[in-house]
Amino acid sequence: MKADYPLLVIGAGPAGMAAAQTAAEYGVEVAVIDQQAQPGGQIYRNVDSSLLNDPSILGKDYTFGKPLVQAFRRAGLDYHAATSVWYLDKNRRLGILKQGENYQLSARKIVIATGAQERPMPVPGWQLPGVMTAGAGQILLKSAALVPRDGVVLAGNGPLMLLVAWQYLQAGVRLRALLDTTPRGTLFKALRHLPKALGASDYLWRGLRLMASIRHAGVPAYKAVSDLRAIGDGCLQAVSFNAAGKSQRIETELLLLHQGIFPALHITQAAGCDIRWNEAQQCWRPALDAWGESSRAGIFVAGDGAGIVGARAASLDGQLAGLQLAHQLGRITAVERDRLAQPIRKAADRHRSIRPFLDACYPVADALLAPPDDTLVCRCEEIDAADVRAVVRLGCVGPNQAKAFLRCGMGPCQGRFCGSTVEQIFAHERGVSVSDVGRFSVRPPLQPITLGQLAGIQDLTED
Amino acid sequence: MFKQLSDNKAEMLTIELDAESVTVPAGISVAAAMLYLDAAATRQTPVSGSPRAAFCMMGVCFECLMEIDGSPNRRACQVVVTAGMRVRRQLGARDNGQAS
Questions:
Q1: For position B8, what pLDDT does the model report?
Q2: CB contact under 8 A, A147 and B58
Q3: ipTM of the complex
Q4: The sheet that has A221-222: what strands, in order across it?
Q5: A260, A119 Cβ separation under 8 angstroms
Q6: Are residues A136 and B41, on separate chains, in Cβ contact within 8 Å?
Q7: For residue B9, what pLDDT is reported?
Q8: CATH topology of domain A120-259
Q9: A370-434 is classed in which CATH architecture?
Q10: What CATH code is carried by the domain that includes residue B86?
Q11: CB B42 within 8 A of CB B54
Q12: Where are the domains of chain A?
């Protein structure tokens, strides 16, 4: 680890790998740090180091990443695995934890490529052991070759939920039920985005094939599911829900929830980059220029962390950021940059053209954005929706003041799993947009750090 | 709650869970091992003492906090099992006296 890098990339998923390799190709000295033990991000997790005998059961979109990860390893970059950022400020000074040691360093340019997290799907009982996210189920398959022992219920909506269902069928897992929470009439509303989506019709065909094989497997499927509840004493025993006007109950020891993903913004916000509310994707995104540079000069955001675009577009966006960085650092001219960027931009636009249709196909039901009173909102501090509504009625103006009232968002996860719900409850109760409500502010440490580590900081910048 | 896919190639190793010897696949995270062992709950919350288990498996939710080799508040999903590792469920708030 050095005191100062011309370019530091945070995250080794599709966008981070591409940004680093592109900049390095044009002679930029680049370091990459990544929280995971292996490169590839969540999407290509363990793709070249799988415990599975046959990783192809996960599908072609997964194995597509294998040559990307191998090329990244071969590029011989200054790559630090299992390393996390606990501090970043607007002057691009960083605090980094690696193997229990705490380092302070700085970088002239930074690419934040920290990807996405799953959108919390708060339902009553979602804190019970036996309830996890669909992404968690997929990570167990990718990284540990583990599958549900005794069947599983999948609930929610979105491409990832369908993909996990398909992958589980490939792996011989019993799907007890697929509970689709997409509100009625959604597809009709989404159709106006279909013409644009036809520009990336390969996505549509893949999706249709996926849905057809799930239907063909005879999985019990329920549409327009509402009033979902996880039931159990100490651990999950059953789920109950409403479908087609009837109450249903299914016994299960495992429920996987999913309702889309949104950008992971903690590091981006810590750096002071401006963020904007996006109504179509129902999430906050950083404000960026055409190359991915944020409102803080020298700090770029690429990939799903900039707005959900998918792995292929993320990789191309990473390349674009890499080209602009190579230009800013004096390695290529603006003319060269633009010539190289043109085909990349065209390809990225094609991959991106599917998004408006997908976003419209998988909206989140209002009752899942702002859940019923007896639902735990802040899992860490055990604050339920009724508590949050009560402080809104008391006149509490927004999420940051709610911290002082309730401590919601102040537990170990630092609001990562309640922030979006708290914002939505405020917006619903006050009858305003989430953009008027605002978002939890973010302060370091962004990762847990002991006082010993803090005191033992190794200030590389003073060498 | 989770099992190995029958055709996978993981070797096994022994770790200590709450002072009891248990055998788990090598190369997986401590959180994955807990699910493999049907021992899903990794902790009880400091607020109400309710049991919690790994939820997101990618270091975001902090539900899988455990004491690993003497250091408390570790995210079990971010730590790979090693032979002889000492893992304890975290009951309530982390124990300051145990910090290493």
A1: 60
A2: no
A3: 0.95
A4: A131-133, A255-259, A152-157, A175-180, A221-222
A5: yes
A6: no
A7: 64
A8: FAD/NAD(P)-binding domain (3.50.50)
A9: Orthogonal Bundle (1.10)
A10: 3.10.20.440
A11: yes
A12: 4-117+262-332, 120-259, 370-434
Query: From the candidates A380, A418, A451, which should be mutated to test the interface with B, based on the most B CB atoms within 10 A?
Result: A380
Distance from CA of A161 to the nearest CA of B (A): 14
Identify the pLDDT of residue B6. 73
Q: What is the mean pLDDT of each run of 10 residues along chain A (463 residues)?
A: 95 98 98 96 95 92 97 96 96 95 96 98 98 98 96 97 97 97 94 94 94 95 97 97 97 98 97 96 96 98 97 98 98 98 97 95 91 96 97 95 95 95 96 96 92 90 63
Q: Are strands B51-53 and B41-44 parallel, antiparallel or unpaired?
A: antiparallel
pLDDT for res B99: 41
Instruction: Please answer yes or no on whether B28 and A143 come within 8 Å at the CB atom.
Output: yes
Please identify which residue in the block is written with the tokens 């539900």: B63
Query: What's the rounded Cα separation, in Å, for the pair B3 and B11?
Result: 14
Question: Measuring CA to CA, which residue among B4, B64, B98 is closest to residue A51?
Answer: B4
> A446 to chain B: nearest residue by CA?
B60
- Which residue intervals of A44-200 are DSSP H helices? 60-63, 65-74, 134-144, 159-170, 186-190, 194-197
Contacts A–B by Cβ distance under 8 A: 132
**For residues B45-69, average pLDDT:** 96
Say which of B8, B45, B58 has its CB closest to residue A52.
Answer: B8
Q: Do A235 and B51 touch (CB under 8 A)?
A: yes
CATH code, A4-117+262-332: 3.50.50.60
- Which tokens sit at A379? 């899992």
AA letter at A315: S
A135 and B56 within 8 Å at the Cβ level: the answer is yes
Span B34-52, average pLDDT = 93
pLDDT tier for residue B96 given thresholds of 50, 70 and 90: low
SS3 A140: helix
Angle value at C-alpha A197, between A156 and A163, nearest 5 degrees: 35
A241 vs A441: CA distance, rounded Å: 35
Q: Which pair of tokens denotes residue A461? A: 């910048």
Tell which A residues from 136 to 165 touch B, by Cβ distance under 8 Å: 136, 139-141, 143-150
Look at residue B100 and tell me if it is in a domain.
no
Chain-chain contact of B65 with A412 (C-beta, under 8 angstroms): yes
Candidate from A171, A172, A417 with C-beta closest to B61 = A417
pLDDT at B98: 46
Give the residue from chain A lying closest to B63, CA to CA. Answer: A380
